[in-house]
Amino acid sequence: MKPFSSMRTPRVVNRCSGVGNLWRRRCLRVCGLGLLAAALGLGALVVRAELPAPDNVLYGTIAIGGQLVTPDQPGVVVEARRTAGGAPVATGTVGAGNFYVLRIPLEAFAPLVHPDASLVGDTLFIVARDPVGVIGQTTYRVPEPGQSSRIDFGTVATDSDKDGLPDAWEQAWLGGLSFGGQTDEDEDGASNLHEYLAGTNPVDGDDFFRLEATFDPPTASVSFFALQAAGIGYEGRVRRYSLESTADLVLGTWTPVPGFTNISAVNQPVVYTTSNTETQPVFYRGKITLE
Ligand SMILES: [Ca+2]
Ligand SMILES: [Ca+2]
Ligand SMILES: [Ca+2]
C-alpha cells in the first residue's frame, strides 16, 4: 500500500482558470464565444427593433372628373389608414408620370416598435383625397415584405378629339366624333358640352337643363331636378349643382345661394324658397359640374 502522502490527490480543475496553457486558451476561447454569443443575442434583439422589414409599395393614377391628376395639382394625396376615417400611417403624392407612390412601412414581428408600421396580414384602408373630400378608397391586405401593387382611383375618360366630350358619350348620343362640344345639334340653346354636363339628350330639343320658378305670394321658389351621373361617359363621376342669384343681369355678379351649393345629385328634386321681400327682380341660374 502506497503511503498516504504519495497517493495522487484528485485535482479539481476550474475550467476557466485551469492550470495548463492549453486549457487556458481553450477556456478563453469557450468563454470568449460565450461572450460573443451573448453579444450576438443582445445584438439580435436590437437589430429586430431597429431594422424594419422592406417596405411594400403602392402606386397608381388618380383621375378626377375623368382627368388624370398631375404633380402640379395641389392637395391631392393617397393615405394608408388603419380605419376608414382614421389618421394616416403613410401618405403619398402624385409625382413623375402622374403616378402616386405610397410606401407602407413594415416590421417583421409584433409588437410594433414604430406605431405607423404594419405587419403582414394587416388590412389597411387606402384613401385618395383632395382638399374637398374623399375621391375614392379601397382596402389593402398587407402581403409579404417588398411587394409592389397598383391601385388606380377614378377612370380616365378618353377624349381623342379633345372637345370635352368623352368619346363613348359622343358615339352613344351623336353616332360619331364629328360633332364638337360647342355646337348645338338639337338647337335647344344648350351646347353639346352643356348637354353632357347636365345629362340631357343632345338630339332632343325638348330636353335641356332648366330652372322652374313659381311665385305664390308671399313666397317664391326656384326648383330643379338633380340628375345623378350615370350611364355611358359618366363612369365614376359625380354631378353637383349650385344655385346662384343676381339682381342685375348685365352688370351684376352672381353670388351663391347659401345652402344650395355643390349639391350632390342622387335624382332628387331641389327647391329653394324665398320670401317675397325683394324690391327689385332677382335672377337665378344653376351651375352644374362633373367631378
Ligand atoms: Ca371627344
Ligand atoms: Ca343642344
Ligand atoms: Ca337637348
Describe the structure.
The chain is elongated, with a radius of gyration of 36 Å. The chain folds into three domains: 17-50; 53-150, Immunoglobulin-like (Sandwich); 167-290, Immunoglobulin-like (Sandwich), CATH 2.60.40. It starts with 20 loop residues before the first helix and ends with a strand. With 291 residues, the protein is of the alpha+beta class. It is 15% helix and 31% strand. Bound molecules: calcium ion (3 copies). Residues 159, 161, 163, 165, 167, 170, 177 line the site of one calcium ion.
Number of DSSP-assigned strands: 16
CATH architecture of the largest domain: Sandwich
Query: Any low-confidence stretches, pLDDT <50, length ≥5?
Result: 1-48
Mean pLDDT: 83
Counted up, domains total: 3
SS field, number of helical segments: 3
Residue share in helices?
10-25%
- Biggest sheet, strands in spatial order? 5-4-7-8
Structural class category: alpha+beta
Kindly report the CATH topology of the largest domain: Immunoglobulin-like
Which range does the strand content fall in?
A: 25-35%
Identify the overall geometry. elongated
How large, in whole angstroms, is the Cα Rg?
36 Å
CATH C-level name of the largest domain = Mainly Beta
**Termini Cα gap:** 111 Å
Ligand names: calcium ion
Element-level helix/strand string: HEEEEEEEEEHHEEEEEEE
Record keyword descriptors for this entry.
single chain, 291 residues, alpha+beta, Immunoglobulin-like, 3 domains, 15% helix, 31% strand, disordered N terminus
Could you give the topology of this structure?
Blueprint: H1 21-50, E1 53-60, E2 63-64, E3 67-68, E4 77-81, E5 88-93, E6 100-106, E7 123-129, E8 134-141, E9 148-150, H2 167-174, H3 192-198, E10 212-216, E11 219-226, E12 239-246, E13 255-256, E14 263-264, E15 268-275, E16 283-290
Parallel strand pairs: 1-9
Antiparallel strand pairs: 1-6, 2-3, 4-5, 4-7, 7-8, 10-11, 11-15, 12-13, 12-14, 12-16
Bound molecules: calcium ion (3 copies).
